[in-house]
Each structure stands twice: as structure tokens, then as C-alpha cells.
Amino acid sequence: MKSASKSDQRFWDRLASKYASQPVSDQETYEKKLAITRKYLTPQSSVFEFGCGTGSTALLHAPHVNYILATDLAQNMLDVGRVKAAEADIQNVDFQRIGIEDFDPDGHSFDVVLGLNILHLCRDPEAVTKKVRALLKPGGYFIQSTACLKDGYSMLRFLIPLMKLARKAPHVTYLSKTDLDSLLDEAGFEQVESFYPDKKGITAHFIVARKR
Q1: pLDDT at res. 65
Q2: Mean pLDDT by 10-residue block, N- to C-terminus, for the chain (212 residues)?
Q3: By the 8 A CB rule, do 137 and 165 touch?
Q4: Distances (CA, A) of 150 to 4, 129, 178
Q5: Where is 206: in which H helix or E strand?
Q6: Measured between alpha carbons, how far is residue 40 from residues 14, 30, 58, 114, 183 in Å?
Q7: DSSP letter string over 141-168?
Q8: Which intervals hold domain Methyltransferase type (predicted)?
């Protein structure tokens, strides 16, 4: 399985302060995704999130679950998350710097795995999706949101490589909605709910999939 590169890690570390200060771009859509997710959470839920960034979503879900392990490559992102958790006196979220590709569950499994706006940033989405399934308990849920940049946005295929050269963009894997559906199916998931915002600009396919 291809792990994220050091350059990607440095990119997100550099971005942490700016990322943390930016408001949610589409609050209505974000709130809807939070509401859908909480249908699959219980006070007993053990949750794993990869690519958690500054932990904003994990901290919002924390009151609804037993425990969340929130992981990311960027130490600076995680440091922001720890400060926010301390300020809110949230004690059931642990932050760990590691990519999902290198994460060792050490025999533990989870009721829910969150992968929000991250799968298209992985170098091997197929392998990551299979690992997610391995991390889940029987019947567990993979809740993910993925930008499918193959479906339109053709200019980005030219812009992103240029931005990467200028250290203005991380690695991006171009997926279509069909690719995403195939990844989930072949990894052993059944889609139970989905949401695609009818908005202008880049939007992400939000899918709740159950481990078969």
C-alpha cells in the first residue's frame, strides 16, 4: 500500500493555521452531513477517523459516541485539534499522527470509520478502502465524502500538477462516481445512504456504506 509522501505531510502542516481559521464554506451541507452521520452513531460507538485535519468534525460528534480516534499526517493540524478539545473539555477524542496506510489497529476494531474529503487525496484509494473494511466490526459503517474530479472539472487536471510544482497542492487521485462505487463494492461494502449536494463548484459524494 502506498503511503502518503513527506511532501504531502509538509503541505498540510504548512496549511494548518490557515485551514483552522477558515469558516465552513457551505454550512447547510455540512450540517446535513453531520445529521446523516449521527443516525449511525450510538453512545457505545467506537469511531476511527482518518484525515481528521484539525478535528472539528470529530469534536462535534464526540458527545454522541463513546470514543473517537482521530488521525492525520499533519502534526500542526493535530495540535490545533488538541487545543480545541481541551478548550471544550472533550475527553473522549484521541489524536494520533499517522496515515491510515501505516495505522496498526493492534487487534482493535471500530463501529464506524470516517473518511471525510480524504479518499481522493490517498495514493491508493483501493487499498485504503479495503483497509477500512478490515478496521470495522461486522456490520460496521464507512462514512465518507469524496470529490470525484473525473466527473467534470477538466481544467483541474492541468492546474493541479502546476500547483504541486509550486507546492500549492498535495497529491490528488482522480476518481469518478463510478470509480467510487466500484471501490466500495469490490472492497465488500453495501451502500445504504448517499447525498450529493446540488451546488456549483466542486462538491463531494457523501456515502454511508455498511460492511458486508
Answers
A1: 98
A2: 83 87 90 98 98 97 98 96 97 97 95 97 96 98 94 73 74 94 98 89 90 97
A3: no
A4: 21, 19, 10
A5: strand 204-211
A6: 34, 16, 14, 11, 21
A7: EEEEEEE-TTSS-TTHHHHHHHHHHTT-
A8: 49-142
